[in-house]
């Protein structure tokens, strides 16, 4: 049986600070290869790579990865500020319509960190550029120092809605996750259902209401050590099962 293909959205990078490339983290590739039963394929976040319908014809599912540039606030009616950081308009042009089309056609899609924020913006939500500045919120950003293992270490719990999609997949009402983001959801989009919160009430796990297939996103990074993590492993396996089901039909 031919394995389905999962498209992993890439991000811009400069080799030696001068040569532009598109890249995908190895941990994303390994998580898909090890846990989904599918073939990982990097999708450049460049609009000219092809129409959204063409991408969906090639891939039976998509992972929207994290990335340093943020969604441009013009997509949700806000003005850009220094706190918004850098932007990637090419990725915005690919991912926002891709999310909507995947949900419309029942194509499984899994959002991670920036991908989580893209889910919300794609369905009419807004983002806050620095959630740590909201009273009562903690600093969710990546620790500036330490090894990768220390920066990606588990930092806080996420409380999940009873009986929700995440509760069903993970079999628990509380899970322990890492935290490496500065932005976060301000206002949720009309079709976005928040199923998980950090202890400071920052949204961490969402689903798209009425989606006929896997349409789930998390604010943390489940791709890190995915094969060995008790939260990451079932998430990627459930996503892989949805991809296999879509490909078969």
TrEMBL record:
Enzyme class name: hydrolase
Highest taxon, organism lineage: Bacteria
EC number: 3.5.1.94
InterPro entries, A to Z: Class_I_gatase-like, Peptidase_C26, PuuD-like
One cellular-component annotation, GO: cytosol
GO molecular function: gamma-glutamyl-gamma-aminobutyrate hydrolase activity; transferase activity
Keywords annotated in UniProt: Glutamine amidotransferase, Transferase
Similarity annotation: Belongs to the peptidase C26 family.
Purpose of the protein: Involved in the breakdown of putrescine via hydrolysis of the gamma-glutamyl linkage of gamma-glutamyl-gamma-aminobutyrate.
Name of the protein in question: gamma-glutamyl-gamma-aminobutyrate hydrolase
Species for this entry: Amaricoccus macauensis
């Amino acid at each position: 049986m031919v394995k389905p293909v999962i498209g992993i959205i890439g991000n811009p990078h400069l080799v030696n600070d001068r040569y532009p490339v598109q890249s995908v983290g190895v941990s994303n590739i390994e998580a898909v290869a090890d846990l989904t039963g599918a073939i990982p394929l990097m999708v450049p976040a460049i609009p000219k790579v092809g129409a959204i319908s063409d991408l969906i014809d090639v891939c039976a599912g998509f992972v929207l990865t994290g990335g340093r540039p943020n969604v441009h606030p013009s997509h949700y009616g806000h003005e850009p500020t220094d706190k918004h950081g850098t932007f990637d308009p090419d990725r915005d042009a690919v991912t926002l319509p891709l999310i909507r089309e995947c949900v419309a056609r029942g194509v499984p899609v899994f959002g991670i960190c920036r991908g989580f924020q893209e889910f919300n913006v794609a369905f009419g939500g807004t983002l806050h550029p620095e959630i740590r500045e909201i009273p009562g919120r903690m600093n969710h950003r990546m620790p500036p120092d330490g090894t990768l293992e220390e920066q990606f270490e588990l930092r806080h719990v996420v409380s999940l809605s009873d009986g929700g999609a995440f509760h069903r997949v993970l079999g628990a009402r509380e899970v322990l996750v890492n935290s490496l983001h500065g932005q976060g959801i301000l206002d949720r989009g009309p079709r976005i259902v928040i199923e998980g919160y950090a202890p400071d009430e920052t949204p961490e796990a969402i689903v798209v209401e009425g989606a006929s297939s896997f349409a789930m996103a998390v604010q943390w990074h489940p791709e890190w050590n995915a094969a060995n993590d008790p939260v990451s492993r079932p998430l990627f396996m459930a996503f892989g099962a949805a991809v296999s089901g879509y490909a078969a039909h």
